Amino acid sequence: MSSPLGIWVVRREAERLGRYLEAELGGHLGGLDCCGGQTNRETFISRYASHRQWVLVMTTGIAVRYLEGLLENKTTDPAVVVIDEGCRFAISLVGGHEGGANLLAYRVANITEAVPVITTATETLKPLIIGIGCRRGVGSETIDAAVNWALLKVSRKKGEIREVATIDLKSGERGLREWCDSTGVPLRIISRRLIQERPWVTSTSPWVREIVGVDGVCEPCALLSTYRGQLILPKTILDGVAVAIVEEAPWIWRREAS
Q: Quick one: CA torsion of 195, 201, 203, 205, rounded to 10 degrees?
């Protein structure tokens, strides 16, 4: 096995994206070197078992056809994430839990500004998104205390958290990543540019505006991570960690309540 991660493209126009994914994710790019009279799909089939995870740069329809006859068991099949060439969506298609495709979809989304698409029931039924802003170098224990404090304010539990969202400037915060790793909650990265375009805050922070260039971090990050989210806890700060909580109830629940 040459690399745990394989990246596959079907069009020359996708080579630039494929090279970027290869550099950022540390995988191996294929799809540009088909030879011996084989089609692109035939070459993919011959290399499918060489990697434990795949990022396919193509439509979901093409991905389904490429995978036809290859899937055997969810506990052993390689994880598959599909991303379109426009980098709009990073879709966890196969092996969401067992293969790690859900977390891989977040990794792909975070480096391309795509929307991670997760459809496994365990995740989609978790309604809470936690927006976090923090001072530099804050530890995971401090983040844990701030999140627990915020959850207590709205009488909610850690098991209801679907994802944590923060600004791209904080993507390398070790304490935040350690907390996400220890709790199994994926980290969603929101670009500063997007927050500047949609400064959804209940109150502007002059300090954050001066240092970071946006009106706030935790509230817009949480809101931008949802489609139908409602802010149930505005920004609350504990020991240098700002936390906001957004709830995104399933559509059917909203319909029945209306």
A: -20
